[in-house]
């Protein structure tokens, strides 16, 4: 698969990235390089390889599922520019 300049421009537009027209050939080449790496990965034989979630086998630790309020209201509101009665105070935006 090969990416041309028009496809690179479309991808940039879909990603909401502004790309100047003179930069499109380089972007298309970068996309083609990335696709080349992906094609190399597709050639690797992974038959019989166990999927893994980490490089070291480990079990996740469980914690008790307890509902609490976090008890950090003062810490959270300490950085607020305006806090009143234990809540964030924001300017009124709707009349």
Write a compact overview of the structure shown.
The chain is 36% helix and 4% strand.
Topology, element by element:
Layout: H1 5-14, H2 24-42, H3 73-77, E1 83-84, E2 87-88
Antiparallel strand pairs: 1-2
Helix pairs in contact: 1-2
Can you describe what's shown?
The protein is mainly alpha-helical and 95 residues long. It has a domain at 5-42. Helices cover 36% and strands 4% of the residues. It has a two-stranded antiparallel sheet. The relative contact order is 0.08. This is Aspartyl/glutamyl-tRNA(Asn/Gln) amidotransferase subunit C. GO terms for molecular function: asparaginyl-tRNA synthase (glutamine-hydrolyzing) activity; ATP binding; glutaminyl-tRNA synthase (glutamine-hydrolyzing) activity; transferase activity. It catalyses: L-aspartyl-tRNA(Asn) + L-glutamine + ATP + H2O = L-asparaginyl-tRNA(Asn) + L-glutamate + ADP + phosphate + 2 H(+); L-glutamyl-tRNA(Gln) + L-glutamine + ATP + H2O = L-glutaminyl-tRNA(Gln) + L-glutamate + ADP + phosphate + H(+).
């Amino acid at each position: 698969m090969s990416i041309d300049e028009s496809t690179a421009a479309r991808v940039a537009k879909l990603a909401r990235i502004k790309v100047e027209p003179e930069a499109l050939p380089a972007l298309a080449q970068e996309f083609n390089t990335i696709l080349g790496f992906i094609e190399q990965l597709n050639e690797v034989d992974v038959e019989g390889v166990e999927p893994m979630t980490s490089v070291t086998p480990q079990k996740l630790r469980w914690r008790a599922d307890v509902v609490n309020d976090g008890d950090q209201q003062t810490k959270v509101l300490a950085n607020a520019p305006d806090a009143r009665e234990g809540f964030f105070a924001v300017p009124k935006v709707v009349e």
